[in-house]
């Protein structure tokens, strides 16, 4: 991921550095190229525009052009703008509450929601020593609940026993009760996904959120879907108070637009990146590292 964006930006910056002294029009020309590179990487248009406007202003407004290494300074400005666009700080989960903390996972079917639920449960169990209970509220897709139970067995994390025919809100209630009574620190609710955003799914999700009052509502989106991922995020965030985003398939050859636009469009931080099918393929999202990778 980010390879072609990184190559494009690398070319722009090499030319800037090679020039030595810089004029305002050199900077403007370079920023136009940055804008094209961002759009080619599938960054949402308003996000790319705002990014370039800000970076241009910073580069021209300060004493950058008169400095000894103007090219270098411009690269730094772009780096800082990238970090800001990605969301300046790495964000941990808000689970330091009176237990059980409730983490609700939402997203479209196939986005990697169930896998990510298990990945986060595994991380909380092994890294943070939390006692985690997972419950699947997906009564639409046959075997969704069994899928989570199987993952639970693999990672040695408890799952709520399946009661056939029970509806999502009732499963959520039962899960909350079980988590309280059995002293779990974190309850993870894996909600149903649909192929498209639809109102029935949204209503079901809102009903669950109302009774479970989650500490975190994490949206799982597939980074390979580019601009669509951003639209999906926008739709979900209009309906429930998301607290963060998990981008899956960051190991694939996505161009990066989803990662780069997500924060600006939803106002929510990317908290984790899924980097493979294995259950330990989950990384905390570090904007400065990602910016560093893009700028080489
Ligand atoms: P759900 O329908 O949203 O619950 O999706 P699943 O969790 O069942 O995942 C769908 C497929 O995507 C599975 O084959 C997962 O192994 C795969 N998957 C999930 N996350 C990632 C990821 O970060 N990278 C890769 N390469 N595959 C993933």
From TrEMBL:
Domain of life: Bacteria
Primary site of residence: membrane
Family stated for the protein in its record: Belongs to the GTP-binding SRP family. SRP54 subfamily.
UniProt subunit comment: Part of the signal recognition particle protein translocation system, which is composed of SRP and FtsY. SRP is a ribonucleoprotein composed of Ffh and a 4.5S RNA molecule.
Entry EC no(s): 3.6.5.4
Reaction equations catalysed: GTP + H2O = GDP + phosphate + H(+)
Gene Ontology molecular function: 7S RNA binding; GTP binding; GTPase activity
Top-tier EC class: hydrolase
Swiss-Prot/TrEMBL GO biological process terms: SRP-dependent cotranslational protein targeting to membrane
Subcellular locations according to the entry: Cell inner membrane; Cytoplasm
One GO CC term on file: plasma membrane
Binding sites annotated in the UniProt record for GTP: 107-114, 190-194, 248-251
Protein name: Signal recognition particle protein
Domain SRP54-type proteins GTP-binding: 269-282
Keyword annotations of the record: Cytoplasm, GTP-binding, Hydrolase, Nucleotide-binding, Ribonucleoprotein, RNA-binding, Signal recognition particle
Source organism of the structure: Sphingomonas jinjuensis
Keyword GTP-binding tagged: yes
Entry text on domains: Composed of three domains: the N-terminal N domain, which is responsible for interactions with the ribosome, the central G domain, which binds GTP, and the C-terminal M domain, which binds the RNA and the signal sequence of the RNC.
Topology in the lipid bilayer: Peripheral membrane protein
Role played: Involved in targeting and insertion of nascent membrane proteins into the cytoplasmic membrane. Binds to the hydrophobic signal sequence of the ribosome-nascent chain (RNC) as it emerges from the ribosomes. The SRP-RNC complex is then targeted to the cytoplasmic membrane where it interacts with the SRP receptor FtsY. Interaction with FtsY leads to the transfer of the RNC complex to the Sec translocase for insertion into the membrane, the hydrolysis of GTP by both Ffh and FtsY, and the dissociation of the SRP-FtsY complex into the individual components.
Residue intervals passing through the bilayer: none
Range of residues in the leader sequence: none
């Amino acid at each position: 991921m980010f390879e072609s964006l990184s190559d494009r930006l690398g070319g722009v910056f090499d030319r800037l550095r090679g020039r030595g002294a810089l004029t305002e029009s050199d900077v403007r020309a370079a920023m136009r190229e940055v804008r094209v590179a961002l759009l080619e990487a599938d960054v949402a248009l308003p996000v790319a525009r705002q990014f370039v406007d800000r970076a241009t202003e910073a580069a021209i407004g300060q004493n950058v052009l008169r400095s000894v290494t103007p090219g270098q300074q411009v690269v730094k400005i772009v780096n800082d703008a990238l970090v800001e666009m990605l969301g300046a700080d790495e964000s941990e989960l808000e689970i330091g509450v009176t237990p059980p903390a409730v983490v609700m996972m939402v997203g479209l079917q196939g986005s990697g929601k169930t896998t990510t639920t298990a990945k986060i449960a595994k991380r909380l169990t092994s890294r943070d020593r939390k006692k985690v209970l997972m419950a699947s509220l997906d009564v639409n897709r046959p075997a969704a609940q069994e899928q989570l139970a199987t993952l639970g067995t693999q990672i040695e994390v408890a799952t709520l026993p399946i009661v056939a025919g029970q509806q999502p809100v009732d499963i959520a209630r039962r899960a909350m009760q079980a988590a309280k009574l059995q002293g779990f620190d974190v309850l993870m609710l894996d909600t149903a996904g649909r192929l498209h955003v639809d109102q029935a799914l949204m209503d079901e999700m809102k009903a669950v959120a109302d009774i479970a009052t989650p500490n975190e509502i994490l949206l799982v989106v597939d980074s390979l879907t580019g601009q669509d991922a951003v639209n999906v995020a926008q739709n979900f965030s209009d309906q429930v108070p998301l607290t963060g985003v998990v981008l899956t398939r960051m190991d694939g050859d996505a161009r990066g637009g989803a990662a780069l636009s997500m924060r600006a469009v939803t106002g929510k931080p990317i908290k984790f990146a899924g980097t493979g099918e294995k259950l330990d393929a989950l990384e905390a999202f570090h904007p400065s590292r990602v910016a560093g990778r893009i700028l080489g």
